[in-house]
Each structure stands twice: as structure tokens, then as C-alpha cells.
Fold:
Amino acid sequence: MYQKGRAWIELNMNHLLHNVTALKALLPAQCAMMPAVKANAYGHGAALIGKALQKNGIRSFCVASVSEAIALRNAGITGEILVLGYTTPHQFTDLAAYSLTQTVVDYPYARELSSFGTPISVHVGIDTGMHRLGEPSENREAIRSMWSLKNLNITGVFSHLCASDGTTNTERDYTRKQIQKFQSVVAYLHRNGIRDFKTHLQGSYGVLNYPQLSFDYARIGIALYGAYSSPDDQTVAQIDLRPVLTLKARIECVRLLHAGESVGYGLDYTAVREMRIAAVSIGYADGIPRDLSNKGYVLVNGQRAKMIGRICMDQLLIDVSEITQAAAGDEVVLIGKCGDQEIAASEFAAYAGTISNEILSRLGERLERVAG
Structure:
């Protein structure tokens, strides 16, 4: 039985499967989920999440790198694994050895993959306006000609929406243009007799805000884990998403801080009254941003406690003046529920001026993941 240590992550697998069911209900019947399990499954633990999803019928996954894909294979994950990012030529051998599917980032890269000499499965990336990876959608002939490259086994075509979480007219108009560009490329390929490939365009917010779209896969990421990127996000689809992750640490010690005394590095916080403060066994080496210094909150015994002083590598300090029962060894909830209180990942991220995607994906390896 796992003995909870200094800091850890608890995973509610029932919530994960609830989210899978809820999200599937939004998708067209022929559309399969291709969960994004990159960045260690957004900090949740790629092997744990991947195995749970595979056990419940998920057969396609996407990651950012070959190393992430190999780790999934070594954990027993079968089926399709799409590498969304660039893979260097010296790693092309791994693509074939581990039966991975590589993204074609542009036409010159397609030729480079083909010249490797060994058949490689690929999905062709189409740039419809994000201007990151993919062959520009207007280069239709270059896209079509990839099918004539000898060693490319093209099984999919996809693009990525860069403003699908937006609610302004400008963002919605831009998203609609991206959708139209992608559909136009697919139609062009079909007219030229190229039909045997899968399509995918939507990430989490593409599904939540444009559920009417009909493609073969949906690359769902943050929503799968029961989180929104920001606390004020609004979506077209009304859906009950439940957070999978709870982040916890322990109170190491409690002590008095007298008025005028300062705490932590740089004497960054000075007490204006007598206080009770607690050291908590988690820090920026575990993924807690230093930007939360003197800003963030945690939960102790069902009550909120403010972070004070600078976040350290391995510890942070909190004000427990109003939580009289707080004591060494008590659990501290940084993300999740405690009693009637909850700090969502999006709220936690907002204190640091970022989004939950970043906060979750940067959670450190020394945090043990415990599935329950």
C-alpha cells in the first residue's frame, strides 16, 4: 500500500472515465478520441493514463516526441501513437522500430522522411493559419504530391485550431476560416482520387465550442483531465467535466512569526502582526511557479491559507494564523478539493498569470502519481 510522502498527486480514474464518456457524447458517431498524452499526460502520468484509456477502448494517442511515444510503447500501449512534433533524422529508425506515426511538418520534411529508405507511417500536417507546423494549406499541389513519395504511408491529414477557445467575433471568424481551409484541402485531395486517410482538426476547445464538426479523430487534451485552461472560460457545449488530479503536500512544521520579522529568501514578506506560519513540503522543483510567491492559496483542513514569501526549490510558506488546528504532518491541497473548498487547476494557474495546461504539464517527476 502506498504511503503518502512529502508531496504527491492523486488521480481519480473514475473521473477520467466519466470525462471520456461525456466527451464522446459530443462527438459524431464515426469520430474516435485520440487523447493527447504528451507532457506526461499533462502532468498526470502518461503510463497510468494511457493504460486506463486503452483498457476502456481508446486505440489512438498523440504525443509531442519520439521519446514520449517510446515510453508509452514500453508501458504496454498498443495501437496508433502519433508524434505531433519534429523528429530528427537520426531518430527515424525509432519511428519504424516502434511502429509510430510521424507528423509531416512540411514538404521538404516529407522528402527527407521518404529518403530514409524505410516505409514510415505519417499524418500530413496542414497549416491553416497558426503558422507553426504543417505545409501551408494554399500549397495544394505540394500536399497532393506527398502521396507519390515512395516510403510514406500516409494515413492521416490534420491541422490545429489556434483560437478555438476564443469568444470574440475576431477569434470565431478566424477559427471558421481555419475550418474552411482544412475542409477545402480535404475536398481537393478527394477530387484527385486520394481518399484513404483519416482527418482531425479539433483539440479540447475545438470540440467544446465547435461540436458540430465531423472528422475522424478528436485530439482532446486538457478537457480529458477535467480542467479548463482559465477559470472564466465559456464553451458552447454544456458538459460536466470532473478534475482527475489532486496535488498534495505536507506541513513540515508550524512556528510563530512576530510583527516585523521577515521570512524566506530576500526577506520578501514581513509580518505586520504576530502570525502562525507553516512550511509546506513542495516547491518550484516540483513544478510550483515562483510567480505564486505572495499570491497563491492552498487548502488546509478545509480552509484557505495564503502563500507568503518566495517559493523555494523544495518548500513554500503559508499563513495558518486562522487555522488554529494546523500541525506538522497535515495534508495540504494545492490543486483539488478539501472539505467544502476547492482550488481548480485553472484558479491555481490564474494566480501565476498562466493557464492550467502549463501548470499541470510542468508538475515534476519526483511527485509520485497514485491512481485511485
The two ends are 12 Å apart (CA to CA).
